[in-house]
Amino acid sequence: MNKPAFRGFGWRSPRPGAKPRMSQLALAVAAVALFAGACSSSDQPSTQTGGASASAPAPKGSGDAGSGTLTVFAAASLTESFTELGKQFEAKHPGVTVKFSFAGSSGLVQQLTNGAKADVFASADQANMDKAVQGGVIDGQPTVFATNKLAIAVAPGNPKGIKSFADLNKAGLTVITCAPQVPCGSATKKVETATGVTLKPKSEEQDVKQVLNKVASGDADAGLVYVTDATSAAGKVDKVDFPEASGAINTYPIAVVKGGQGALAKEFDDFVLGADGKAELSKVGFGPAQ
Question: Which residue ranges form the domains of the chain, and what is each CATH number?
Answer without folding.
Answer: 68-147+252-288 (3.40.190.10), 148-249 (3.40.190.120)
